[in-house]
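User: My instructor asked us to take a sequence, write out its structure as tokens, and then describe one feature of it. I'm not sure where to start. Here is the sequence I was given:
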Amino acid sequence: MPIEAETILDARGLKCPLPVLKAEKRLAELPPGATLVILATDPVAKIDIPLFCMQQGHQCRQEDEAGAMRFVITKG
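Assistant: Let's start with the prediction itself. The structure tokens for your sequence are:
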């Protein structure tokens, strides 16, 4: 089984709720089990993105990246 490449959504510079709305749209296009990486700079994303993932049944891991937050989401 081939390893799927990560899909990256660059939401740096976008304010709430745009990172979550863009993530929702992108996740709808991906099959279950796919990985979406979101880069965000809005401090509210630290709350909004994990909450969205929990409500939708996706796994979410947050990492720090230079100048941005990096959210690694596995679609449920």
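For the description part of your assignment, you could build on this observation: The chain has one domain: 7-74. Try explaining in your own words what that tells you about the chain.
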